[in-house]
Write a structure and sequence with these properties.
The protein folds into 2 domains: about 300 residues, 3-Layer(aba) Sandwich (Alkaline Phosphatase, subunit A), CATH 3.40.720.10; about 90 residues, Arylsulfatase, C-terminal domain, CATH 3.30.1120. The N and C termini lie far apart (about 85 Å). The strands form 3 sheets. A 10-stranded mixed beta sheet has the order 7-6-5-4-8-1-9-10-2-11, with helices on both faces. It has a 4-stranded antiparallel beta sheet with strand order 13-14-15-16, covered by helices on one side. It has a two-stranded parallel sheet with strand order 3-12. Helix 5 runs parallel beside helix 12 and helix 6 runs parallel beside helix 10. The chain contains 14 helices and 16 strands. The chain is globular. Bound molecules: 2-deoxy-6-O-sulfo-2-(sulfoamino)-alpha-D-glucopyranose and calcium ion. The site of 2-deoxy-6-O-sulfo-2-(sulfoamino)-alpha-D-glucopyranose has 13 residues, from loops.
Length: about 525
């Protein structure tokens, strides 16, 4: 008898917990720029294939200024998990070998609140996930075709296209594997649309008949800016390869395309791939464009493949939203969509990220929370991936640890007027020398002005985003901006102190290793 009533108490409390606490579905992609989300309204809004993503914004809130702490994969993920800047969570560059999984993270704190936690997809933090009841993560960067996963049981290769495989695994966990008596927090983390932008077989010919609009700065000459913008290694013109990146086997000089794609594919996948790219490649090899025409061709191929990848991400979002609807979970599940950082889609002639310039510093953030977030709301306050952990904790009713450095977005989501919201945001990128050769820098942004300091080459930049939203003119030495420079420098110093940033260790980089410089000479079609 005692046993029976005890059982009932247990059941009832489980039901109460799940009824009270909302589920959290965090959908994350890799390198998805806001320019490629239609509801952000950029120059690609008519071609960005994002109806399901846009539905999150339509039914929830779109954040126009979600700024990352450090625009690179592993560091962004570490910030999200810990609610701390890179210098405090220890994961400062992608080259950092292992995230210290023993430290405090929001999934661990959610577990204490009775949540079931799960991460499926890209992880990229070196160490094994901690704080998750369930995890199936891609190994390293992961592969687009027939990806390998690491799970607590070991390694597993799954046939299929990565975005679809991750979605299936997420749906399977939601439907069959989780404990339905507990609220859940699921992180569904896609590899797409990361470089080399390989599309799903069914979308290989999407956008074939479309001309993608070019950004105004595709042929940027970097005049009016400093060494950092000139010395990077991430232009479409020079760095982007015709072989691996743009999928022309005749130019696959290092065998990357074969290694990453064709050798991993099943015969059926390879047949679809060759049928799609073969004729398009043949046309290019015959026409032999050069100079600006070749850059324009590269841009089109790059953007089409990128958008094809987005098509699958969007479809994945549609599938999980439908699952929530069909299973009575829609009302009590908060859906968040974001990416580890933004990306250059030809702006300044670039791909990749890392810089504090707008396209890679800003990341998409859309949140749907039925009954709490007013549908169709748009927020322009400065928020950050630094805020995600505390937001999730407040949603779960947990305390926000004092050592986390962000602010919970819950009041903003509920439409409350928030006094004392941050007016400025601190940024710091550390990976140099390294991939794409972006000099280390830190900076401060206040919604209008952006001050950046490339400390290992001792160069400052100031942009006035009101008069110069595309960041083409460094005003640092313009006497008319002397007051702004002074104010922003003081703010940078204040933020460094507030966030406990150690003194920069300025290293001599006058002769950086050449090991990372990928392709100093542009390829020509022969
Ligand atoms: C790979 C890419 C780089 C990219 C980094 C980091 N090269 O090394 O272009 O900047 O990942 O990306 S590739 O030839 O392997 O595609 S991140 O999203 O993981 O930070
Ligand atoms: Ca990334």
């Amino acid at each position: 008898m005692i046993k029976k009533s005890f059982w009932w108490v247990l059941c009832l409390s489980a039901i109460t917990v799940s009824a009270e606490k909302p589920n959290i579905l965090f959908i994350f992609s890799d390198d998805h720029a806001t320019q490629a989300v239609s509801s952000y309204g950029g120059h690609l809004k008519d071609v960005a294939p994002t109806p399901h993503l846009d539905s999150i914004a339509k039914e929830g809130m779109l954040f126009k200024r979600c700024m990352v702490t450090n625009s690179i994969c592993g560091p962004s993920r570490a910030t999200i998990l810990t609610g701390k800047y890179s210098h405090l969570n220890g994961f400062m560059t992608n080259e950092t070998t292992k995230f210290d999984g023993a430290q405090q993270t929001f999934p661990k704190l959610l577990q204490k609140m009775g949540y079931q936690t799960s991460v499926i997809g890209k992880w990229h933090l070196g160490s094994e996930p901690t704080g998750f009841d369930h995890w199936e993560v891609l190994i390293g960067q992961g592969y687009y075709y027939n990806p390998d996963f690491r799970t607590p049981k070991g390694k597993e290769r799954v046939e299929g296209y990565c975005t679809e495989v991750v979605t299936d695994k997420a749906l399977n966990w939601l439907d069959k594997k989780r404990d339905k008596n507990k609220p859940f927090m699921l992180m569904m983390q896609h590899k797409a649309p990361h470089r080399e932008w390989s599309p799903a077989p069914k979308y290989l010919t999407a956008f074939d008949d479309v001309t993608i609009p070019e950004p105004d700065t595709l042929f940027d000459s970097y005049e009016g800016r400093g060494r950092a913008a000139r010395e990077q290694d991430m232009t479409i013109h020079q760095t982007m390869t015709l072989g691996k990146d743009l999928k022309i086997p005749e130019y696959d000089r290092k065998g990357d395309l074969a290694r990453r794609i064709s050798k991993r594919m099943t015969p059926t996948q390879l047949k679809a791939w060759n049928a799609a790219y073969g004729p398009k490649n043949a046309k290019l090899l015959k026409e032999k464009p050069t100079g600006k025409d070749l850059v324009r061709w590269k841009y089109q191929r790059y953007l089409k493949d990128y958008l094809r990848c987005i098509k699958s991400v969007d479809e994945s979002v549609g599938q999980v939203l439908q699952y929530l609807k069909d299973n009575g979970l829609e009302e009590n599940t908060i859906v968040i969509y974001s990416s580890d950082q933004g990306f250059y889609l030809g702006e300044h002639g670039w791909f990749d990220k890392r810089f504090m310039y707008d396209e890679s510093y800003r990341t998409p953030l859309m949140v749907k929370w039925p009954g709490k977030v007013k549908p169709g709301s748009i927020n322009s306050q400065i928020v950050s991936n630094l805020d995600f952990a505390q937001t999730f904790l407040e949603i779960a009713g947990a305390d926000q640890p004092k050592d986390m450095q962000g602010m919970s977005l819950v009041p903003i989501l509920k439409g409350e007027k928030v006094e004392n919201w941050r007016k400025t945001h601190y940024y710091h990128y550390y990976e140099f020398p390294g991939w794409h050769m972006v000099h280390r820098h830190e900076g401060v942004y206040d919604g209008r002005y952006k001050l950046m300091y490339f400390y290992d080459i001792d160069e400052w930049e100031l942009y006035d985003l009101k008069s110069d939203p595309k960041e083409m003119k460094n005003e640092f030495n313009n006497p008319e901006y002397a007051a702004e420079v002074k104010r922003m420098k003081a703010e940078l110093a204040a933020l460094r102190e507030h966030h406990k940033v150690p003194e920069n260790q300025i290293k001599d980089v006058s002769n950086p290793t050449q090991r990372y410089i990928s392709n100093p000479v542009p390829e020509v079609i022969k």
